[in-house]
Amino acid sequence: MAAVPDAIKDRVFIIGTLSEPEVLKKSLNTSLEKIGEMVAEECFDSDQGIWEHEQLLHNASEVARLKAVLFSVVFDG
């Protein structure tokens, strides 16, 4: 976030795996595309399953901020 201009920091969300995406892919034995679908579904359902994976757990505060800002825009239309 240090590289993001102050004027847009409230509209930028940085989430990702702890190391490399391939580690998460191998751990879950599925494709990156399917992992993306799982992440989106869990955001919609307010489920935390995949977000509690050791490769994604460090994103908790950013995911909470993302949900607070975008949930009504993305999911309530």
Average pLDDT works out at 87
Please mark out the parts with pLDDT under 50 across 5 or more consecutive residues, or reply none.
Answer: none
Query: Span between N and C termini?
Result: 28 Å
**Helix-strand pattern:** HHH
Largest sheet: none
Strand percentage lies at under 5%
Can you count the beta strands?
A: 0
Radius of gyration: 13 Å
Summing up helix and strand content along with how strands pair, one would put the structural category as mainly alpha
Helical content stands at 40-55%
Overall 3D shape: globular
How many distinct helices?
A: 3
Comma- or semicolon-separated keywords:
77 residues, mainly alpha, 3 helices
Q: Can you walk through the features of this model?
A:
The protein has about 80 residues and is mainly alpha-helical. The protein contains three helices and no strands. The longest helix has 16 residues, at about 60-75.
Summarize the structure.
The chain has 77 residues and is mainly alpha-helical.
List the helices and strands and how they pair.
Elements: H1 21-28, H2 32-45, H3 60-75
